[in-house]
Amino acid sequence: MIEQVRSVSSLFTTSGPAGATMETSIAGSAAQTAMQPAAQPPMSFAAVLGDVATDAVNAMKLSETKSFEAIQGKASTREVVDAVMNAEQALQTAISIRDKVVTAYLEVARMQI
């Protein structure tokens, strides 16, 4: 999933020192795509966000399952704590991404036409 996020982030413009703007060219991202296996198409931004949401939901389901297993005596406390911490981290990641998307939307909405 990190590779997918990196491939999406390579499409954005970055600012260099003294306000100079460096653009990542499409050729650069095409070269990265060429390094990936041919069977894997490039990921869209919506697909990356969907994957993050799916991973967060799966982590929460696993956490819930481990909690029930602990109540039944089938899982150790460490397994439960690990699953809950992973779920919490996934939830915090999803919340921060949501906040960034909302902030970006509000900035676009405030732009003058």
From TrEMBL:
GO cellular component, one term: bacterial-type flagellum basal body
Pfam families listed in its UniProt record: FliE
Source organism: Mycoplana dimorpha
Keywords: Bacterial flagellum, Cell projection, Cilium, Flagellum
Family, per entry: Belongs to the FliE family.
Domain of life: Bacteria
Protein location: Bacterial flagellum basal body
Gene that produces this protein: fliE
One BP term from GO: bacterial-type flagellum-dependent cell motility
Signal peptide: none
Keyword Lyase listed: no
UniProt-listed InterPro entries: FliE (IPR001624)
Protein name, UniProt field: Flagellar hook-basal body complex protein FliE
A Gene Ontology molecular function term of the record: cytoskeletal motor activity
